[in-house]
Amino acid sequence: MKESASPRWGHAQVDRRFAVRAGLWSLAGLSTAELTSLRAANPPVQKTGETVLPFGQAKSAIYIFLSGGLGQHDSFDPKPAAPDKIRGEFKPIATRSPGVSIVEHLPKLAACSPLWSLIRSLTHKSNDHSASHHMMLTLRSDLPAGFQGNKPQPGDHPCIAALAGSLVPRRNNLPPAIVLPEKLVHNSGRVLPGQFAGTMGPRREPWFLEASPFSALRYGAFPGYDFDHQDRTPKDAMRVFRAPSLDLPHELANGRVESRLGLRQELEHQVALIDSVGPQWEGSRQLAASLLTKPKVRKALDVTSDTEQERYGKNAFGWSLLMARRMVELGIPLVHVNLGNNETWDTHGNAFPHLKDKLYPPFDLAVSTLLQDLNERGLLQETLVFIAGEFGRTPRISLLPEHYKLPGRDHWGAAQTVLLAGGGVSGGKVFGATDKDGAYPKENPVGPDDLAATLYHALGIAQQAMWNDSLDRPHRVYHGSPIAGI
Asked: How far apart are CA 26 and CA 476, in angstroms?
């Protein structure tokens, strides 16, 4: 919509970019005159002579996160000319995009390559799980003062679900950002930092749709594709994916949402709970009530009994991405999907059989179906989809015989490949490159901050935008530059 030519009573008609800026007033303290200047100050950003994604083309974004770290050699950056100890066991196959090859066990993604592009040069300086999770969940390359890898801190940087969710206007009275199908919890029970609102304060927490109970030793896309990295015998029961209940923010729930009942009972229980909270949580109460009570939302959450599950895969990966698509269709601006619980993609050992037999079949089917579905429904150009983990894997294959029967690769923050699609991304392209061993970027290195800037730019968040923390101190949104050439 365009702005109305003359003022009139009733609801003003404004374009989406103006709505984004208006949503920033309370965060940045902008006056009307300053807002007018801000709107005029967003020409296409250029880098290396190329224009980046169209500003504000994306209405929504889906961040598919591969906790544990996907190896670049064994996925989207194969090195067939490298020695055996670097090349790995998988062969490259051609995609439908000239000159772009990926590994042989991703044939469905290869077939729809005109819909996606690759960044083969994402880099940061950490090889530690916790620090790298914080970097890639917040898309900030620096760690906050007082960072602790063993638990989230109030001083952590806000995750992108909290930050982008706060800056992009809500639609249809639904939450601005949702995380599904589970929080990231280490097999020791330690909650990973970086996935919460941090310094933005508890009222900005993203909404977690919990569909998958914690399991210490079961990874992957259950049922059918679950596994344990070290082939240990799990002591817990089989994991079950269910139509999720909504985890209210901790301060709102006040510790009272403890039982996991049937879907209908759980919804009724939580609706009663949110009705009982005080006026200081009125905004959260309204959002929760809207999310929990709308028939369309309930239907969108019930993915395990729907005929569409056949196309996505009747497993945790397929159900999660089907739910993500439906959340976008409902009008939720940012959906964060943890495709596998913590360390699912942490292939220190037994890497090649686990990737080939357990991880890639459900991943390849679910992601390719999501992209094609969004495209066929006319949603892909207004939905930015991107896939990353906390880091890549080491160039050299290694074996840890005390833990694993077969070899794998260790942590490697210096290089990973990110897949992007939609939201103005030109399909079939490769941006950046690693050296002959896949160890370090040799062309166009980009950091987590640049990936964040690309997301914010595509969602129409101005480069001058600010956000205020829980103490009302202003902070910049952008810490990098939107990536050109995609």
From this structure: 14
